[in-house]
Design brief:
The chain is an alpha+beta fold. Helices cover 34% and strands 18% of the residues. β2 and β3 form a beta hairpin.
Length: 225
């Protein structure tokens, strides 16, 4: 991916020296250079007086502050800090988005269920990828690409196809806001389980996590009415 362990230390040290003004650039460089993810510049939302506007400028934007900027090219996996800086200079203030379906898919559940499931999965010693938290209390589990399209079949095989589960898959064509960017004007994204060298490029197969996630979501929902 173009970075060594020493490069990781240098990148993080550079980030601390340059301060908050360069945080988006160093974040982009970390995601592309260290974790091997493509990055897409995204729109930002502003909230004033109960009204939400999107930096894309479209009247009645359906996803204010939560979609890619149509005119801005993506920054490919492997881009260096200088390349990230050059790309972001063209879109100052853009949010950092990650395209789903390339290096990973996402299983999305309520935050409370996600925290409970993560604790169970760690006790079981199962392999885990990164887990992000949204400002509106959702947990995003990174899993191997292809999970979103296979999700209905996987749930069927596990006997969860008839259950009402607050669990959905995000795959190719979807994007998620990356920590620490603001999501839809609601607040910053956060890592519950940050990426690491042995997990970012090889997230686990969805089937390894899905049984626990489905069980916890089912329990969290309580008795059906």
């Amino acid at each position: 991916m173009g970075f060594t362990i020493g490069g990781i230390r240098d990148l993080r040290s550079t980030s601390r020296r340059r301060g908050r003004a360069s945080e988006p650039v160093t974040t982009v460089a970390e995601y592309t250079g260290l974790w091997g993810w493509d990055v897409v510049p995204g729109a930002r939302a502003a909230r004033a007086g109960g009204r939400v506007t999107c930096s894309c400028g479209a009247t009645g934007c359906s996803s204010p502050g939560a979609h890619p900027l149509a005119f801005a090219p993506s920054v490919p996996a492997g881009a260096t800090l200088d390349e990230a800086a050059a790309a972001w200079a063209e879109v100052p203030g853009a949010a950092v988005l990650l395209p789903v379906g390339r290096s990973f898919d996402v299983l999305e559940v309520p935050e409370a269920a996600g925290r409970h499931a993560l604790a169970r999965l760690e006790r079981m010693g199962l392999p885990l990828g990164p887990v992000a938290l949204t400002p509106h209390e959702r947990a995003l589990f990174f899993v191997a690409p292809g999970a979103a399209s296979e999700l209905p079949q996987l749930l069927y095989r596990m006997g969860w196809d008839d259950a009402r589960l607050d669990l959905r898959g995000l795959g190719r064509g979807d994007h998620i806001t990356a920590p620490p960017s603001d999501h839809a004007g609601l607040g910053p994204m956060r890592w519950l389980l940050p990426p690491a060298l042995d997990t970012a490029g090889r997230p686990p197969e969805a089937r390894l996590l899905l049984g626990t996630l489905a069980y916890v979501c089912h329990r969290s929902a309580g008795p059906s009415s």
